[in-house]
Amino acid sequence: MSYEKIKEEFIKDAEEYINAKRQPFEKLSGAELEFAKGQYLENFQDYINHLNFRINAILDDYLISFSSLEEATAFQDYMKPTFDMLAKKYTDGIMD
Predict the structure, then answer these.
(1) Where do the structural domains in the chain lie, given as residue ranges?
(2) pLDDT in tens, 72-86
(3) pTM reported for the whole predicted model
């Protein structure tokens, strides 16, 4: 499996996670909504843990291993902008 396909699956999974966590917001307003958003932001580290778990699971699912440190580093460098984008996406629209 190509790095691009891994990235696409990873992004899809992260977006599903965000959408599921934000779904309760639709039913809330006022102070309840602000409290829920605060709780959501407090769980940012859980989201980061989820991302790390999912990328490792995807690699395991497709039996992808790296034969050298250089190869693993190249993959990390390739995925870093995606991790950064997904971290920002978690907070987009919440802190406005």
Answers:
(1) 3-91
(2) 999 999 999 999 999
(3) 0.89
